[in-house]
Automatic annotation (TrEMBL):
Protein name, as recorded: YrhK domain-containing protein
Keyword check for Lyase: no
Record field: transmembrane: 21-47, 53-72, 93-120, 132-149, 170-187, 207-227
Alphabetized PANTHER family for the sequence: OS02G0257200 PROTEIN (PTHR34967:SF1)
UniProt lineage: Eukaryota, Viridiplantae, Streptophyta, Embryophyta, Tracheophyta
UniProt KW Transmembrane keyword: yes
Organism domain of life: Eukaryota
UniProt entry keywords in alphabetical sequence: Membrane, Transmembrane, Transmembrane helix
């Protein structure tokens, strides 16, 4: 769902201690965001699901921040010289495109949840936004899947088999979770055809359960990513 670690040593920014610290914070924030997402979806099974929507909004906001940080890190790594992308496919398709696609997808998903929350909280005045909310959930999940596919194009130029394996262990859960969110959003949208539901009633139990499993996959990917970030930092210290 999100690209968290820089792909190439030459693209990383700042002094090594600051760089490592930034990557640790980045990875930890994403992991915390997945916990909030999981809690938000589980809360949808309760009698009062609206607080769960708040957790989802906070988790998505953190994911947006993480992606923007990742984008700025890569841009800083090339001194914001965007023309360099003409000469490097990975720079354009992965290190620049992935954070943008994931950020936009997260924003769309955030807006979808926000519109549903406003409909549940404020009532009739926001019902007109609800018709767009379900489509936003689908669009956001589509971009997550696209970003995950783009991320699979990442190549580590200075990486041993362990780092390569960890990278795949990050990509697979992110892609699987994104697909689960997409399937859940599509099934949920179809389930609401012909109904007169509003607010949280627009979120079917199928969407909730697929969201729970998708969040679990993101959490697994987040844990693996933390391990990968520490492994990368260790390798840099050894080779320094």
């Amino acid at each position: 769902m999100v690209k968290l670690a820089s792909a190439r040593e030459s693209r990383m920014y700042g002094p090594r201690p600051a760089r490592n610290r930034a990557e640790y914070i980045n990875a930890a924030l994403y992991l915390f965001a997945t916990v909030l997402l999981l809690g938000g979806f589980v809360a949808q099974l309760s009698v009062e699901p609206k607080p769960g929507l708040v957790l989802l909004l906070i988790g998505l906001a953190l994911i947006i921040v993480v992606n923007l940080h990742d984008l700025m890190a890569h841009l800083a790594g090339i001194d914001y010289r965007l023309r360099l992308m003409e000469y490097d496919a990975q720079l354009a398709l992965v290190e620049f495109a992935v954070p943008i696609v994931q950020t936009v997808g997260s924003i769309l998903f955030f807006l979808g949840i926000l519109f549903l929350f406003l409909g549940a909280e404020k009532g009739h005045g926001y019902y007109k936004f609800e018709q767009h909310a379900l489509n936003l959930l689908i669009a956001g999940a589509v971009l997550w899947v696209v970003g995950s596919i783009h991320n699979s194009c990442q190549i580590y130029e200075r990486a041993d088999a362990q780092i390569q394996l960890l990278q795949e262990s990050v990509l697979i859960p992110f892609f699987t979770g994104s697909v689960l969110f997409l399937v859940g959003a599509i099934l949920n949208s179809r389930a609401q055809i012909g109904t007169d539901h509003h607010g949280v009633e627009l979120l079917s139990i199928t969407w909730v359960w697929l969201g729970i499993f998708g969040s679990i996959m993101f959490f697994i990917g987040g844990i693996t990513n933390v391990v990968k970030v520490f492994a990368n930092a260790t390798n840099r210290r050894i080779t320094a």
